[in-house]
Amino acid sequence: MKIIIINGTEKHGVTNRLKEMFLEPFREKAEITEFYLPKDCPSFCRGCISCVMRGEHTCKDAEYIRKIAEPLMAADLIVMTSPAYVMHATGAMKALLDHFAYLWMPHRPAPEMFSKRAVIITQCLGAGANSAAKDIKHSLSWWGVSDITVFTGKLMGEIVWEKLSEQKRLEFTKRIHRLSKKLSGVDYDKSSRVRVSTKIKFFFCRMMQKSLHKNDPEYFDGKYWAEQGWLGKVRPWKI
Ligand SMILES: Cc1cc2nc3c(=O)[nH]c(=O)nc-3n(C[C@H](O)[C@H](O)[C@H](O)COP(=O)(O)O)c2cc1C
After folding, report:
1. Would 68 be classed as within a structural domain?
2. CATH code of residue 34
3. Contacts 24+ apart (CB under 8 A), 85-90
């Protein structure tokens, strides 16, 4: 099986520690590709909309994005991590998610996304881990991923793993091991179940693309939907 990991920080702190513990049962059996932000995508979206209007290869940051998009498409499991910074995912993570706007369902979702599973690992000192996870989940779900598991935690005191109380470390270790045990037992040859909410999003976007394509058959997104067969009877979760 293949795993892609996208870390919202380069720091090898608590989030990284949790991610490493999560990966333990996968190390032997999975091909793992890992990215650290901002190192692996150090640039911001400048809002030119070229990815949407003319294709992602026209983005000024296309080289960075291609290097991440390829293993993203190939992955059976997507792992995204971020500590909470000012109650949200890190700016580096948000900068990457902006670059993937073209993958959102109202534009050109990748059919591969509908069968994938994802895990989000976030933690914070006191408050913000849930909203950080939500920032990432929002993109994943609009990319078409239905099966998203979220791990959040609060350190409540110290921010360095070694200085945390024995009880806190034990709590985090137990919880992350429980999650990795559950997810390493999944049969990744089988596609994930597609949620009704994903199908509803898809059908609304399909209605919009149908009308856009009718008005302008050259419109980039509409053309993509037509080529996938999605304006007809083909559905991305039935491949
Ligand atoms: C810029 C910045 C903003 C932060 N904002 C929050 C916050 O809103 N809520 C919170 O509980 N902790 C906040 N923290 C603390 C981190 O979430 C916490 O230290 C976390 O454990 C860091 O994870 P790491 O060790 O993986 O880097 C912030 C830290 C930084 C550097």
Report:
1. yes
2. 3.40.50.360
3. 85/128, 85/132, 86/128, 87/127, 87/128, 87/131, 87/132, 88/128, 88/131, 88/132, 88/135, 89/8, 89/122, 89/132, 89/133, 89/135, 89/136, 90/8, 90/9, 90/37, 90/132
